[in-house]
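Researcher: Quick one. two chains, 886 residues in total.
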Amino acid sequence: MPNKSLPWLNSIVLTLANIGLALLASVIVLSLTGVDIGAAISQIYHGAFGTQEGRGYTLYYATNFIFSGLGVALAWHAGLFNIGGEGQATLGGLGVAIICIQLDGLSLWLLIPASMLFCALFGAIWAFIPAWLNAYRSSNIVITTIMLNLIASSFLVYLLAGALKAPGQMAAVSESLSAGSALPSMQSIMAVFGYNIVNTPLNISFLWALVCGAGLYYYLWHTKLGYETRVVGHSEESAHYAGIKSKRIVIITMMISGALIGFIGLNEVQGNSLQLNVDFVAGFGFAGIAVALMGRNNPLGIVIASILFGALYQGGSELAFNEESIGNNIIFLIQGLVVLFCGALQWMLRPTINYWLRPMDVIKKDKLPVR
Amino acid sequence: MLSPALELQNVVKYFHDIKALDDVCLKIAPGSIHGIIGENGAGKSTLLKVAYGLINPEHGQVFVDGVKVNIENPQHAIDNGIGMLHQTTSWLEHYSIIDNILLGEYNGFFMSRKKAKARQELEQLCREFGFSFQLDMLMSQLDYSERQLVDILRSLYRGAKVLILDEPMALLSPLQSNHLLDLLELLKMQGISILIVAHKLSILHHICDVISVMAHGKLVNNINPKEVTLGYLSKLMVGREITIPHPNSSVSGVDRSLRLKVSNLGIKQKTRLGTSRQSFSLSDIDFQVNSHEIVALTGLAKAGHENLLAVLAGSKPFTHGRITVNGTRFKPSKQYDLKQARELRIAYVPDPLTGEGIVSEFPIFETAILGHHTESFSTKAVYQNKHNQQRCQELMRDWNIRPNNPMLSTGALSGGNQQKLVLAREFSKAPQLLLMAHPSNGLDVGAIESVYQRLFKLRDSGVSIIFCSNDLDEIMSLSDRVILFERGQIIGQYYSQQLSKNDLSLMLANEVVDA
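Model:
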């Protein structure tokens, strides 16, 4: 009976098997450091999901992963490999900080749309540069986006050491945003519904990330532009035949992708730190590649993968805090292994899985004696 | 009795939940030409790919000269003396023929000695089989037919005892096609067995020693073509006799209106640095097409007729002249593109080999709106999957595209069914001018007949149809008028009814005939 749903089943089993392998490899590395594996896993789990505070942090980190995963996935559907997430997120945060400082004292109902708009705009503009170079000057988008990451981070340092530097501060940070311009925290939102939860950095951006995920799904599979994006991603020739202007699609797609990743800045700057510092992106832009791979470029998959990544991030830091022999780098190790098994070795297990999941009557046939 | 040169036993292959090959057994006698016929999607190509190791079946054995062998990939096949010709082989364009042939054969650090020896062997083979090219010519200097011969030479050099060909004649002109058939006869006399799939029953009937008929993944019949008529063959395949050429009578007593006027059209090629001479890939193209008319464009390879079709469809730009469609005049500019052409109700069926008309990774229902996707999104810019799926299913039933499941990926369809899908899509858009490149490429005789009937019906309702073809039977069956091309220019226009197949083939071979 598994006949009908076989291709669909195969791809899910394959993804789960790849993730399983990545986690297994992580466990092996962990055990090599001499840590008690059972204790370590329970610490990660407890750190991520055991307490209300842990859950709050998990979802707060997951928010960043969702934004960057969605951005990478969208570009992927147009056949573009956007690894400029770090830069686009940096610019997004910059946009938020500038608008919040400029419009300080404005009602939150007006400030939030304004900061979201600027955040998206800054991220989109940063993505427009490689997009235009790719569409009209045939430059390789992998190289341009990664170079723009470095430029963005230097640009941020330049601003934080000069124009945006907080007066009377030694550190390279911007002046603090006023507490009144912060995004509503999840605590205050839940309080409206009569629930009382511990305060964590988790804020309304998480809900916005979920809306973005649903929106991206709708965009890719239910709108004309989304359809055209996918045609361009699969075949340049078919796109030409269909009368689709590929250059236009490349630019639109990259700009939306940049805007989505830019929202990391919203979550970080206006949602949590209320201040711009030099390394607020902290690798979340790059992690989007792993998230998109793990989620198979599907918005729902990305949300699930993001929560898993958020849990690893939160639980991992808890573990690093408790165990002397483990540093924060454990998170990057796991990320790297996910990229390895879900990306580079994506199809490694396919023949094996196809063999185990082959249709019933083939199995019967195999068991017949050879004539 | 000699054991078969190649034998396949009990081959079973699934694609997802579809049984593409169902317990197929096939024996190819040494030194024979063995043809396989069957409707689109019957499993012919799949079977060939199994024999060459491109597809691994779930079940089944392969025997070469009576010995069981394990063929999991093409290298195994080559090692066992099985060679295959591909429709779309990719070559290293800027390398010589000999380098392309020896690609992957070099082993050891010093290759020059080996190359000298290989050159001797290859030259010997060239003499033996009458290949006319020089081994040092660059691949980019060769046309499609010559590349095919290089491919055959490569298989021979690698010691092929069985040669597998999938639709080798599809893109050849009649002359080239005859040349290839002569070569196959010669190979056969040298003891090489040939396994060939083609839709041109008349050719198979002529050259094959045995013809196997496939249907729905099963091998249903082995026939000796010497004992049956051509009509019987087509009856076996589609259940009724089909006459070729198909009867065609042009419409009379209707008001013809001018649909398309092309005047002085040309494409200037970008001149390379250092050459002052201007070159045109098309020049001085002047012709008209009325409603109620089917016009064939033909010529030898690279004669320009395929280019012209792409220009008319808006797929390629032109640099000189005018195109007038239904009274709207277009100058050379970016304004006349595929989108503009579609707005003028010009439908375009591109050459199936380019794969432009489909997106193989998409589900079928999404391929079924390609190019017309703008209409498939309602005013709310939302496109209705359910509605599109339903429409697609109706279209597939109407055109007998199997398996009839719009959710399958387009790439899972056989080549012929993919082509039917493209034709179905373009026909369903009620075009006024229909442009087609090699429309029946990959279709079985039954499907071709039904496509022709649909075309005649469209023509009778006033549609103008222009198509490119190298297939004389197709041109004679389908067209009311033929336009001949040579080196980017029109060299003659004829009414098909005043022309015989023989005249046409002579004209293509560049001989002067009074028509």
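The first helix of chain B runs from residue 44 to 52.
Researcher: Thanks, that's what I needed.
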